[in-house]
Amino acid sequence: MYQEPEGTKLALIKAAGELFAESGLDGPGIRTIAEKAGVNIAAINYHFGSKENLYAETFRYVISHEKDVHAVDFFKEVGEDIDPCEASALLYRYVKETFSFHFSKKQPRWFNMLVMRALQDPSPSLQSLVEEVFRPDMEAFVAFIQKANPSANTQDGYLLDFLVVGQIFFYSLCRVPILMALKKEDYDKAFIDKAADQTAKAVISVLGLPLPRE
Amino acid sequence: MYQEPEGTKLALIKAAGELFAESGLDGPGIRTIAEKAGVNIAAINYHFGSKENLYAETFRYVISHEKDVHAVDFFKEVGEDIDPCEASALLYRYVKETFSFHFSKKQPRWFNMLVMRALQDPSPSLQSLVEEVFRPDMEAFVAFIQKANPSANTQDGYLLDFLVVGQIFFYSLCRVPILMALKKEDYDKAFIDKAADQTAKAVISVLGLPLPRE
DNA sequence: GTCTATAAACCGATAGAC
DNA sequence: GTCTATCGGTTTATAGAC
Predict the structure, then answer these.
(1) pLDDT digit string (tens) for A114-153?
(2) Contact A121, A25 (CB under 8 A)
(3) Residue A173 CA neighbour count, 13 Å, CB half
(4) CATH of domain B7-61
């Protein structure tokens, strides 16, 4: 069971998580982290043993706290003979909820940035991240895709999953240049809704399902 | 005009480019770079003045050597009254060529990885990268989108561009976990073709154009 | 548990011999 | 143009006082 951190440990995890999400494990020095957390430098080693362990702990903290939209739960009750219109509506809701989860202000922005960044930084824990965190949802998603359109093969399912994950990855990590291109200050709700709507429609169209009515 | 580097300079640019593409400016130390290039450490400072200058030069090298598919050229001759089927076919070709350009083996893999990584690493040159390298193509793409479907607004155009760029960004930077998920060794031509096909169809469908016949 | 002081390793940059 | 040796700064980690 996950031991909920408190006090100095919690402050360090929150400060470090934010900084690691911004620029990776090698980005911030432990001085910067300690300063942001408002604790002494030596506290990192006292509480976590090393910077790398602190990184791993920020990760554990996010995994156990984020209330992600899990395909495993979302598509749990889908039967073999789902109606195309129902499948389309369900898929639409799934993509919309996944987006609004990742870009909502209900949880700190660094939660998903940390996870997305970990996907690209080669690290020893990458394999377990893929196998334990992503794999189950990917497989549930692919299974649903094949129920919604039995002529789709496994690779089609994965590619559709990548269409969604890829967009979230892009909007998470390219925030700065995207906002620069759009000449905006920040993502607003309308923009994220539009991006989610587009992604959902893309997935539904490519799969050959009818688009949900407006 | 761009002065073509030779000898030690060229060896350093190639070695550094590969390493920077892998893990950013702060990833490799100059010792690692020099070793990979097979030259002395001091050569970096002698030829480039600093590590940061070497980074900037690897960038200039890529920009001037990659034969990217530019939307500016691709959609140059499109008139106001383009036929939807023609527009669809042109868009399809554009996405396919952009993908096969970015993932072909005709140029080193680190070329596009370096550019894609630069998009997410906050750096002083990010703004000029966006404005000078990406902006012109984005605007040409958006202009085409609005010709292909006059009811699309500017934001719709940008979002469709992000659909394509986002997928390329994702497949470029998440190569390792993607291959891990797929249990593959490397991207093969068939896979990239499929991903490109899917992305092209997604863009065309979302824009409301007819899909090109198989 | 928290602090200061410092060790040990590494970094980018450079002086000076060849 | 290439090398060795080294400087000054920064990093993570830790020993020891409180």
Answers:
(1) 999 999 988 878 999 999 999 999 999 999 999 999 999 9
(2) yes
(3) 31
(4) 1.10.10.60
Query: What residues of A are in contact with residue B130 (Cβ under 8 Å)?
Result: 177, 180-181
Averaged pLDDT of chain A = 95
Is the CB of residue A72 less than 8 Å away from at least one CB of chain B?
Answer: no
User: Would you list the domain boundaries of chain A?
Assistant: 7-61, 65-206
Q: Is B42 within 7 A of strand D by CB distance? A: yes
Characterize B74-91 residue by residue with b for buried, 16 or more Cβ atoms within 10 angstroms of its Cβ, and e for exposed. Answer: bbeebeeebeeeebbbbb
Question: Which tokens is A169 given?
Answer: 């990855």
CA A194 to chain centre: 18
Please name the residue ranges forming H helices in B104-188.
109-120, 126-128, 135-148, 154-173, 175-182
- The tokens for A35 are 């300063």
Of A158, A160, A203, the CB nearest to B181: A158
Question: What is the mean pLDDT for each group of 10 consecutive residues in chain B (214 residues)?
Answer: 94 98 96 98 98 97 92 94 96 97 93 95 87 95 97 97 98 97 96 98 98 84
Exposed/middle/buried for residue A125 (C-beta within 10 Å: 0-12, 13-18, 19+):
middle
Contacts 24+ apart (CB under 8 A), B5-10: B5/B57, B5/B61, B8/B37, B8/B39, B8/B43, B8/B47, B9/B47, B9/B48
Over residues A81-120, the pLDDT tens digits come to 999 999 999 999 999 999 999 998 889 999 999 999 999 9
Q: Give the pLDDT confidence score for residue B213 in this predicted structure.
A: 80
Q: Does domain B65-206 have CATH number 3.40.50.300?
A: no
Q: Which residue is nearest to nucleotide C3 (CA to C1')?
A: A40
A198 interface with B at CB cutoff 8 Å: yes
A126 in B contact zone (CB under 8 Å): yes
Distance CA B42 to C1' D7 in A: 14
Inter-residue contact A74 to A164 (CB < 8 Å): no
Tokens describing residue A73? 């739960």
The pTM for the full model equals 0.97
pLDDT in tens, A166-207: 999 999 999 999 999 999 999 999 999 999 999 999 999 999
> Which nucleotides in chain C lie closer than 7 A to a protein CB?
1-5, 10-16
